[in-house]
Amino acid sequence: MTHDVEKRFDRPDAFRAAATYVGGVVAVAGVVFAIYAFTARDSVIAASLVPAILFVGGIGAFVRTYREWKAQRGAWPAWQGAGWFLLTLMLVCLSIPGATMQAT
């Protein structure tokens, strides 16, 4: 049994799964952003969907982090990194609805 402080990052399958998850969430947010940019530039709701998708994706990654940690599989650090990456990207993308509100 490994200890919580012993974090060996020798699980490439866990990292690959977390990276694929992040890529999928970012791709969905990118498609929603493209739809917003080309069709509904004055809609604050459409602009708010981009950070909302990233937020939900980040929370989903943290739920997976907890499940991996609770099962003691040792793959939770990759999922925690995925969650923090998505939440940080969400904070950056909060400027999209802010810019839309300024323009209207």
- The number of helical segments is 4
Global geometry? elongated
Mean pLDDT: 88
Number of strands: 0
- Poorly predicted segments: none
Could you estimate the helical fraction of the residues in percent?
Answer: over 70%
Whole-number total of structural domains: 1
Q: SS-based structural class?
A: mainly alpha
Structural write-up:
- With 104 residues, this protein is mainly alpha-helical.
- The chain has one domain.
- Helix content is 78%, strand content 0%.
- The protein is built from 4 helices and no strands.
- It has helices at 12-38, 44-70, 76-93, 95-103.
- The longest helix has 27 residues, at 12-38.
- It is elongated, with a radius of gyration of 17 Å.
- The model has no long low-confidence stretch (mean pLDDT 88).
List the helices and strands and how they pair.
Elements: H1 12-38, H2 44-70, H3 76-93, H4 95-103
What's a concise summary of this model?
The chain is mainly α. It contains four helices and no strands.
